[in-house]
Amino acid sequence: MGRETTIGMLIVTLLALASEAAKRGILTEGTRLAYGRLKEKIVAWSDSDTSIFDEFYTRESGRRHIVDAIEVRPSDDRVTVRSMASALAELLRQDVLRGSLGISLRRLEEIDAQLKTLA
């Protein structure tokens, strides 16, 4: 049996999907801003440095640290980042439909659907 999907795991996955496009500078302005805001909030919670954050969550130990930092937050905080992540997923979806990103539309839709079911 696999591990339960959590809001922290979904957010880290979403940030990882957006990270490469952000590094390459191909996100639209709105998507870039949404990605940056979500990343900044999670960085503050995980006591990470923004300059190393992109590499930090590509390692398993880094991902686990960030997931844990999200999971221990009060419910109101998790609701806030869930909403931010859902908005980012929608903006990424729009970028994908414009043909500007190499991210799976199906994967984005799965993440967004899962985000909407978690509290």
UniProtKB/TrEMBL annotation:
The protein, known as: Uncharacterized protein
